[in-house]
UniProtKB/TrEMBL annotation:
Keywords: 4Fe-4S, GTP-binding, Iron, Iron-sulfur, Lyase, Metal-binding, Molybdenum cofactor biosynthesis, Nucleotide-binding, S-adenosyl-L-methionine. The lineage of its organism: Bacteria, Pseudomonadati, Bacteroidota, Cytophagia, Cytophagales. Its EC number is 4.1.99.22. The gene is moaA. This is GTP 3',8-cyclase. InterPro entries: Aldolase_TIM (IPR013785), Elp3/MiaA/NifB-like_rSAM (IPR006638), MoaA (IPR013483), MoaA-like (IPR040064), MoaA_NifB_PqqE_Fe-S-bd_CS (IPR000385), MoaA_twitch (IPR010505), MoCo_biosynth_MoaA/MoaC (IPR050105), rSAM (IPR007197). It comes from Hymenobacter telluris.
Amino acid sequence: MAASSVLFDNHGRPLEYVRLAVTDRCNLRCFYCMPEEGIKYMPKQQLLTYEEMERLVGLMAGLGVRKVRLTGGEPFVRRDLVPFMARLADIPGIDDISLTTNGVLTAPYVPELARIGVKAVNLSLDTLDQERFARITRRDELPRVMDTFHALLAADIQVKINAVVMDGQNTQDIIPLAELTRDLPVEVRFIEEMPFNGGSHTATPATLPWHHRRIREHLEEHFGALVPLTGAAGATASEYAVAGHVGRIGIIAAYSRTFCGTCNRIRLTAEGGLKTCLYDQGVLDVRALLRGGSSDADIVAALTSAFKYRAANGFEAEQQRPLHQLSFESMSTIGG
């Protein structure tokens, strides 16, 4: 199906980008994402098959989606991921395939990622200190993550490091991580901590200890004034140049939600739930349509209808959730 003109939601925002979770499973146990004992994973038969995901991406491409980012869980814990990505790249209208990974299993696949034209990889990395890494992730895997980091750079794949800033946990890592941009063509992005940890979270955007303004102030105390850059349409990060640095720095106000007005992304969870906002409870069971015999036209109609009732921002989406039990979800089930 050839791509059509861009589809807009009810607030006039284009929908060009889908984040596709291929699994809810993960080989790390980051405390801000899930409890130490992990989460109850979905039975395999409840996950979308690769064929079902290909069908959906093809239909979305016909609605104007052009970018697909593979997420999880950790995408590489699912077998045959790279051949699946290659098939997605061949779908007419899809011109940008990217990936978010924790890097533990990724390094051996980097040459294949480069071959199929993966444009960018977001690498989740909250610290460069091996002891803190093991404490945060509950796994001692930093050397393997750094192998992936260097392999991606060697393959000329754009690397963005995603670091969640957590009070009392890794704030001492902000400057060392940012220093990577001095000599390397990477973007290091600092993310406000969000409540998707499978447990409780009492902070609000107003009381979050390390909000986006404080992160910037801390960086400027060390590097001097950050120079704002013009980001891509729909970007979540405020991007900055640092004098004398090859790379750049990004700050994502994920909990303050300052970027909602330009959001151009939708999410598909591993079990086929459509989320038009990270903070909503899911607005459409696509798996039921796929397995219930719905035609392509039926599915397109259902998707188009869902996009017409999109929340204006993350706060509105959160308010619409039953009992507002947002904090009991895990990012592993949401899809990054």
